[in-house]
Amino acid sequence: MVHPDPHAAAGGDAHEPLRGGFTSTRFVLVEPSHPGNVGAAARALKTMGFSRLVLVAPRIAQVHRDPEAIAMASGADDVLAGAHIVPTLADALTGTQWSLALTARTREYGPPPGTPREAVRDACRQVSAHGDIALVFGNERTGLSNDDVERCSALAHIPANPAYSSLNLAQAVQVLAYELRLAYLAGADVGAPSPVSGAAAGGAAVASPLATSDDIERMYVHLENALIALDFLDPANPKKLMSRLRRLFARSGLEREEVNIVRGIAKHILLLKGKDDGSH
């Protein structure tokens, strides 16, 4: 059996400009339980030309060396062996500008999850304009927690048969990897300006770079401290305030300079209240 080079897009030199998409996309598995699923996910990635697999707190610490995982990888041993293992989703998303949570959960508020095909169009725009992105998949039994979902920029849901919607983790990875491969090879919206970074006609300067996931998380901590200092947020009864603010900011596609502005506002609120400004 011939296994494709994970860094090469099928079709040869004609697709060279899109190679960055294949190497800029992380597939993140949060707390995977079964070694076989991890190996099968590695195989799914390699068949579609991807190679960046990140494992968040897997149940078996050295799962990439597990015999069952290696067997299920079925020749994608390089992708499995190169998997990056981290303790938290925050670590997995470090340096990314955009992330997609695959989830079956519905929210009390905010837009419903899009289909994989809809989601990958956005992924193409983000890769073209900003760099690293991540696709995030939950545990086989419980999926992603609400906190994990809120940490991501967008949501997607595979519209499976409602009478039998059980989808194996590796199968879900395969569906997203396939859709993303087609989009990258077709150049779907690649090069098109994103809502927050497009240049105006006539060659005007583009907007500043998007903030990374870790920059945004630090902003949320800073903002939450400021809202508590103002007595606007009661930490004993926070309700859904920070969750709603996360969804608000996620829709805006925060630029680095915008994050700095929000943190500057929070800093001055805390200084006026005589509190630690929460800077990191």
Plain-language structure description:
The protein is α/β, with parallel strands linked by helices and 280 residues long. Helix content is 43%, strand content 9%. The chain contains eleven helices and six strands. It has a six-stranded parallel beta sheet with strand order 3-2-1-5-4-6. Helix 2 links the parallel strand 1 and strand 2. The longest helix is centred in the middle third of the chain and has 18 residues, at 169-186. It is elongated. The chain starts with 18 loop residues before the first helix and ends in an 8-residue tail after the last helix.
Question: What labels would you give this structure?
Answer:
alpha/beta, 280 residues, 9% strand
Separation of termini? 51 Å
Low-confidence stretches: 1-18, 188-206
The largest β sheet comes out as: 6 strands, parallel
Shape: elongated
The share of residues in extended strands comes to: 5-15%
Helix content: 40-55%
Number of helices: 11
Topology, number of strands:
6
Q: What is the string of helix and strand elements?
A: HEHEHHEHEHEHEHHHH
The class by helix and strand makeup works out as alpha/beta
Short structural summary:
The chain is of the alpha/beta class. Helix content is 43%, strand content 9%.
Explain the layout of strands and helices:
Blueprint: H1 19-23, E1 25-30, H2 35-47, E2 53-56, H3 67-73, H4 77-81, E3 84-86, H5 89-93, E4 98-102, H6 116-130, E5 133-137, H7 146-151, E6 154-156, H8 169-186, H9 213-229, H10 241-252, H11 256-272
Parallel strand pairs: 1-2, 1-5, 2-3, 4-5, 4-6
Helix pairs in contact: 2-3, 2-8, 6-8, 9-11
